[in-house]
Amino acid sequence: MDAELSEAQEQAVEQAVRVAGEDGLAETFGFLLGRWLGTHVRQITTTPEPLAALMTELAELVGGGPESERAGGGPWTVLDPACGVGGLLTAAVHRWGAHGELRLSGQDSDPVLVDLAAARLALTDPPEPRAGRPGARRGRKRAAAAPRPVRTTHLRPADSLREDGPAFRGEADVVLCNPPFNERDWGHAELATDPRWVYGHPPRTEPELAWVQHALACLRPGGTAVLLLPPAVASRRAGRRIRAALLRAGALRAVIALPPGAAPPHGVALHLWVLRSPVSPAEAGSELLFVDAAQSRPGRAAGAAPPAGPGADGTGTATAAGAAGKAALDWTVLRDTVLTAVRAHHAPDSDRGAAAGADVPPGTKAVPVIDLLDEQVDLTPARHVPVAAPVAGPGLGESWSGFDGLLDRLRATAAELSPLTLAPDAGEAPGSQGPTTVGELARAGALTVHTGQSPADGVVRDAASAAVDGSVPYLTVQHLLLGSAPNGRVSHADAAKGRETGTLTVTEPADVVVIGSSRVFDAWVDDGGPTVLGPQIHALRVDPSVLDPWFLAGCLRAPANARQAGTHASATSRIDVRRLQIPRLPLAEQRRYGEVFRRLASFDGLLREARALGTELTRTLSDGLAAGRLTAEDRGNEG
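The structure corresponding to this sequence follows.
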C-alpha cells in the first residue's frame, strides 16, 4: 500500500523533479542520496568509492576479468549479499559495465536500502570500453564492432545468511561485500547444518566468518571474493579452525590491512580478505600474501615533515590540516601499494611476467601456509610483515633542520606574546556592552551563516585524480576526528557551480570556519584559499565594517563557548553555532584583540607542527635503534 505524502513532501518531490529536469536525473538523485546518507551516517554504513573501486580491481587481478580465459565466455556475474545502497555494485558497473553482458545481484535486509540501490544502479551508465585490463586476453583480433553492453540487475530485500536463495549459488564470478560487523543474532543455531559451512560451523561470535563462507559458496570454481572485515576476524581464537581450513584449501589468497580512515568505522584499520573458490584440491595455495598498507601510512614518507601545522602561517585552514600531524589518506598511493603487491603474487599467468619485474612495495610478505598453521592461526598482517626500515642519513638531517627552524619560529612568536599581561578578572572588558550571540549578529546583518553540505556522488575525488585541473579541498568532521588533512578534492568548476546553485558551501577569504561538533570544536579564519565544507561545519561571513574576523574566531573558539552552546544530548553533542557568544566591542578594539588572537593562532599552529615532527623523529630513531642501525661513529661518541 502506497503511503500518502503530506503537502510539504509533495512540494519537495515536485521541486526535485524540476531540478532533475534542469541538472539531470542522475546528478539530482546522487545529490539527494548524499544528503540522505549524511543525515543517517550513524545508522547506515557505506563503502567509500575509492575503496569500492580498489575491491573490484583486486577481484580482477586475482581471478581475471570478463575477457580472461577463466571467465568462460558467459555473462559476468557480480554479487553483493549485503548491498546496502549499492556502492559496490555501482563500482562493478564502472569496472565491468562495458563487458558484453553483466549480471548484478544483491540482497540486503533493509528494503529501503534495496530500493535506493536499484534506483542508483538504474541511473549508473557503463564506462567506455577499456583496453589492457589485468587478465584480458592477449593477441586476439578485436571484432569490427563490440557488442552492445547488456546489464541485468536482480535485487531483493532479504537476510542473505538466513534467506539465501539458490539462484546464484556456485555461479557468481565475483562477490564483493562489506558485511555487517559484530552481529550476534545472525542465525547461528538455525543454520547449524547449512551446507555452506564447508570450512566449519562459524561460532556465534564469528558472524564475519559466516559471511566469508557464504561468499565462497556463491562463487563458481575459480571465482573471486573481496570482503571488507574488522581486524579481529584475523586473530580471534574462536575462528582459528575455520581460518586454518581456509588456508589448507587455498581459499584465502591475501589479507590486506588498510590504514585507519579508509572506511567506517574510521578509527579502525580494517582488513580486506581476498578469496578464491578452489577449482580442485591440487590448486591449494602454498603461500598467503600479507600487505600491511596501514604500516605504509600513505600520503607521507616515514621521517618526512608533516603537513603545515594549524595556524603555522597565521591562517586557519592549517588548523584542520595539521591536528596531531597525521598524514592524510592518499587513495592513489594506497591503491598503487596494494595493487603492486597483489599483482606480483597473484596476477593471472598472462600478467605475472610483467609483474615480477616490478618493485614489491614495503609492508608486503608472502608467508608459507604451513608456517601459519599454529595454535592461533593469526592472520593479522602486522604480525608477519617486517617493519619498514626507517629513513636515515639525509632524510633525518633534513627533518632535524626543519625541527630547528620550527623552534626558531616558536621563539620569535613567543617573544611577541610574552610581554602581554592579563588584567584581573573584573567583569566585562572596558568598552564592552555585554555579550551577544552569532544568531543576534546574523539577524542584525553583521554576518551570515553558511552551513556545510554533503556533495552529490562523484563530486568529491581523491587528491591525485583531481590535481590535473586544480581542485578545492573538501573538509569534513571525520578528517578532524582523525587529525588528518582533507584528502577529498572538488574541482574548481564543480565548486563554482555548487556555490552558484547553493548545493555546496565554499569558503571565501576571511570567512570564519566553525566546527559544530563538541569533540573537535574549533574556529579559525580561513585565509588559505577556498575550502568546501561538509556537514556540521559552518562558515561565518562577516561584514568587515562591523566585525573583525580574527576577533570573532578567537572569541568563538573559547572552551566555555562550546560548553554553553552544546546540545548536551550525548558525549558527541553538536554545537548550536547561533548560540555561541562574543563580547560587544568597538571595531578598533576588536582589531586590537584580533591581532593578538592571530599571533596566538600562529603560536598554536607552530606548537602542533613541532610536536608532530618531533614525534616523527622520535619514532624514526627508535625504529632504527631497535633494528641495530646505530653507526660506528655514533657508538664511538657514546662516552
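Residues 134-144, 298-327, 352-357 have pLDDT under 50 and may be disordered.
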